[in-house]
Design a protein that fits this description.
Layout: E1 6-11, H1 15-21, E2 29-33, E3 36-40, H2 42-45, H3 55-61, E4 66-69, H4 72-89, E5 94-97, E6 100-104, H5 105-112, H6 115-128, E7 135-140, H7 142-149, E8 155-157, H8 163-167, H9 178-186, H10 192-196, H11 200-218, E9 237-245, H12 248-254, H13 256-269, E10 271-282, E11 287-293, H14 300-320, E12 332-344, H15 359-372, E13 378-382, H16 388-391, E14 392-396, E15 422-429, E16 432-433, E17 454-455, E18 458-471, E19 480-489, E20 494-500, E21 503-510
Parallel strand pairs: 2-4, 7-8
Antiparallel strand pairs: 1-6, 1-7, 2-3, 5-6, 9-12, 10-11, 10-12, 13-14, 15-21, 16-17, 17-18, 18-19, 19-20, 20-21
Keywords: DNA damage, Nucleotidyltransferase, Transferase
Protein name: DNA polymerase IV
Domain UmuC: 28-149
Length: 511
């Protein structure tokens, strides 16, 4: 069994406010973006100001509330010195977002004689540097460690293998998915423990890959060491400069096309990058490397930002170094972007069908459509109908999907949700046999001649039905009719099949 990945999570509460206002205490203040509160001080929360409130509502709760615009770039710049401080005492610190960094616990814990001792020592260093509000969580995996750091104690250690127990009483809002949390709350599922108790297959069918991943996190599965898909060496992109470029903005501007090339290579491979290493080579031949993590996945702008941050950090270190120790940091002659951890793109695109798509996805899909032709990329929409083939409408990317049949109208005999993820067009022949090896039949009353025992060469584990379906019975040919069954085999495949004219056909398959 794989050992849990123990990590330290260093969390700095209300970091955007610390970056904007300096060390606490702060007067009642709120940072807003797009006319909504994205951060607020503890003194403002005491008067009912909350993250997500509209600006007018927050000011209605506290007339003396100070309102400032949020500057994410400043959050990043101000956190870089803190990250350098952490790295001097705990090499390998990885930035998840400004105000949150994670470190593998094994080496640090061995050096200090234990996880609690290491956390206490690291917290003392950070507090001495002027960050008394910092919190440290130690747990199996970054997700659990971050939530442990959110506790009231300066340091919280979750014992190995106890992630599920620690997470169980926390609210589902801890998953940071407002849409899923709202739906689960309406269904009466209000804690991570209740969410984790749901059947994993049913969660995947209902919420897709992203829902399945969040379900695994709620169950403490983040405690397992990830086995990322090894990145393809062809995903690496590099650019050289002649003459060397000295300014961070110059290099960032020049590397934009390289970042776009990395994203195109990732899109072509059907993956996204969750961890990247950036190698900077100066005109003295010195190579400066650093790894960066992203909470979801990198886009081109994120890669350019990391190059700029890395250059600004190097320039700051060179400027602060003593004269007798200062190293000659020359201009940059090459930048190399190396994806070091990738994940399936399907896990990171919840809005691909059925909701608004972001600009990055639209840009990437449009490029693919240019290569494959107008109908090479299509989107799916649900239409009305009794058969799965009638309910699926495929529209070329960029065009408005128009359902030929209203899905809201009643369609007697249609299949209720969830519908199969895979639809066979046309339906494929399939064998449904009894224990005696004979084909199962259906009589005029809709009764099976025998219980299904085998399907497509596999043993039947469970089945439901049959349900009659018929349409256009007034037509000269009698219309289309049959009887449906849902069957689960011993390979954990769920089939939707129907019998028509004495033969069995696979209409779809659940995933």
């Amino acid at each position: 069994m794989t050992s849990p990945l123990r990590v330290f999570a260093l969390w700095f509460p209300d970091w955007p406010l610390r970056a904007a206002l300096g060390p606490p205490p702060h007067p009642p203040t709120a940072l807003v973006h797009a006319n909504a509160v994205v951060a607020c001080t503890a003194s403002a929360r005491e008067h009912g100001v909350r993250i997500g409130q509209r600006r007018r509502e927050a000011q209605g709760r506290l007339a003396a509330l100070r309102v400032l615009l949020h500057d994410p770039a400043k959050d990043d710049r101000v956190f870089l010195p803190v990250l350098r401080l952490i790295e001097r005492h705990a090499p390998g610190a990885t930035l998840l977002r400004p105000g949150l960094a994670v470190i593998r616990a094994r080496g640090l814990a061995r050096y200090h004689g234990g996880e609690a001792e290491a956390a206490s020592a690291l917290l003392g260093i950070i507090t001495e540097a002027g960050y008394a509000e910092a919190r440290i969580g130690v747990a199996d995996g970054p997700f659990t460690a971050e939530l442990a750091a959110h506790g009231s104690e300066p340091c919280t250690v979750v014992p190995a293998g106890r992630s599920a127990e620690f997470l169980a009483p926390l609210p589902v809002q801890a998953l940071r998915d407002e849409q899923l949390a709202g739906l689960l709350t309406r269904l009466g599922v209000r804690t991570l423990g209740a969410f984790a108790a749901l059947d994993a297959i049913e969660v995947r069918d209902r919420f897709g890959e992203r829902g399945a991943r969040l379900h695994a996190l709620a169950a403490g599965a983040d405690s397992r060491v990830p086995a990322p898909r090894p990145p393809d060496p062809e995903l690496v992109r590099a650019v050289e400069f002649e003459p060397a470029l000295a300014g961070a903005d110059q290099v960032a501007f020049a590397v934009r096309q390289t970042a776009d090339a990395v994203l195109l290579a990732l899109d072509a491979a059907g993956v996204v990058c969750t961890e990247v290493r950036i190698d900077l080579t100066d005109d003295n031949g010195q190579v400066y490397s650093r790894s960066w993590l992203h909470p979801t996945c990198f886009d081109a702008a994120d890669l350019v930002d990391r190059v700029r941050w890395q250059l600004e950090a190097l320039a700051a270190e060179s400027a602060k170094a003593p004269v007798d120790e200062a190293r000659a940091f020359g201009g940059i002659v090459a930048v190399r972007i190396v994806p070091t951890a990738v994940d399936d793109a399907a896990h990171h695109q919840p809005g691909l069908f059925g909701s608004a798509t972001d600009e990055r996805l639209h840009h990437a899909v449009s490029r693919v459509q240019t290569m494959l032709g107008h109908e090479g990329v299509v989107t799916a929409a649900i239409a009305g109908g009794r058969w799965l083939a009638d309910r699926q409408v495929l529209t070329p990317w960029g065009e408005r999907a128009v359902a030929p049949r209203d899905p809201v109208r009643p369609w007697p005999g249609s299949l209720p949700d969830p519908v199969p993820a895979e639809v066979f067009l046309p339906p494929r022949p399939i064998g449904v046999e009894s224990a005696a090896g004979e084909s199962v039949g259906i009589d005029g009353r809709g009764s099976l001649s025998a219980a299904p025992a085998r399907i497509d060469g596999a043993r039947v584990q469970a089945w439901a039905g049959p349900w009659p379906i018929a349409e256009r019975r007034w037509a000269a040919d009698g219309g289309k009719k049959g009887h449906r069954l849902q069957i689960v085999d011993d390979r954990e495949r769920a089939w939707l099949v129907f019998c028509a004219g004495g033969r069995w056909w696979a209409e779809g398959r659940y995933r």
